[in-house]
# Entry
Amino acid sequence: MSRSTPALRSFANRGLCAAVLVFALTAANPIPRRVITLAPNLTEIVFAIGAGDHIVATDDFSDSPEAAKKLPKVGGQEPSIERIVAAKPDIVLASASANVTALRAANLPLEVIKTDRLDEVAPVMLKLGALLHAPHADEAARAVRDGLAKQHRIRKHPPRILFAAWNQPLYVGGRDTFIDDLLHVCGAQNAVEVTGWPQYALESVVAAPPDIILHSSRLDLEPLLRAAPELRTKSRIVPIDEDRFTRPGPHVVDAAANLNAIIDAWEKSH
Amino acid sequence: MGEVALKRGVFVLAVLLIAVIIAAVCLGAAHVSWRDALSGDATARAVLVRIRLSRVVVAALIGATLAVAGVTFQTLLRNPLADPFILGVSGGAACGAAVVTAFGLARVPGLVPVVAFAGACGATAAVFLVARRRGRTDTTRLLLSGLILNALFSAIILIAFALAPASDMASALRWMMGSLSGASWSDAILLGTMFVIATATLVFISNDLRMLAFGEDDARAHGVNVERVKLIGFGAASIVTGAAVAASGIIGFVGLLVPHLVRLIWRRDYRYLLPLCALAGPALLVASDTVARVAIAPVELPVGAITALLGVPFFLSLLRSSR
# Structure
């Protein structure tokens, strides 16, 4: 090497530098091979962007897609930190509602992902795509964006829709929530004018009955309807698949399509 | 103080209760008027008669029930800290509701209130069996076994919560937090019947209960069948508490606070306390529930928290000025 020309030396140096740089980058930011997801919508997103085979465990509630059912589970509301650590994850994906303090205390490679709103779904897909070097992140994000654009409606008479989250006492989906975003995409108006997920006055609902009342098919609305039987005739009461309507993930387009079909049917009957 | 003071107290509280009830049925989240309801407007009638008025009546009955049960427990146990929930009544009710929920049966119509009621009565019976020795019921043992059983119930509730499906948790929580939302006329009729029967029973034994307040031996010396009075008193108070919990979940504090409020203002004789509590209890709970409904309408607040917020400052100022 001592007789080599300066040009050659410079070239060799550059190659060495590049090699060192690549090595340093991969060492600092290795491709995560072992992923744990702690929320059903995050599991769905990771599968949708094509990184599902890197998931080594999920929370108990992750039941979709089919392949997620067979994965080892680490617990529900309070996942087992021991099991998570034992699964040797390169990255743990949790939603903002998870027990972040406990996960941080265990020194886990934690990534808290906020997906509370509809317009956060596609950016989260891209972010996780970059983080996990997932092959289909761009397609998945585009599918969500284009799909939602296709489901976007402007209706001449926007129906007032109420989402009943619980029957007794009545809890409803208010403004600035994921369900509120879906209603807006589909050209509907939220019958609830307060924000968040409040306990709500039944008499306000009866005084101004919504055009449509949505409720989870798992929730029996009978106790509420016994207290307010006029809602049976004044409102169209539609049970919906709760998982689809409350998980900000790849199925948001299906939820919007589903909601549009519900509203179209209501418009026809008017 | 005697008959005159009692009559004056009953009059003052009756006027207060009527004023509170009028305010409660006029205030609400929906802007509808009684004039519309009376002139036949169906929506106004539905809101005011079927939803608001029924809720006010149920609140009044639960307030009366808890206050009457509270004053009975305090007299029987001769303990100022006793309230309708200390003997495991609430724990039993909530435990029943939580276990039903954990088994995924919360959606079977009517099952949760029935199990809550059975839990309340079962818990009281269990506490009694534990506390009873050689034909006598020892008050300290009664309180202690109630406290211990409550600890067992909360353990079962915590485990049931951990096992319950997340979507059903709200149902179990309703029993813990207490809520008057969705109260109906059928609740009111059931509660009203139970309240009338229990109160009539308590009035019937009120003279014996008054004697009991001076001590069991004194009462026995005056010819009171102490064990029978205890059994009837506890039985009546527990059954109405169970019915109240089954209708609204656990609304704490009314049973503890109201009898003491009444005692601070009027007097300690059980015969006077009973009617005064039966008027002051509903006034407090109806006022609290009205605040819970209208403070940030149409969002509703937990009624139990409002009861404490309204009652505690009043109670503390009374306690200070009475020293």
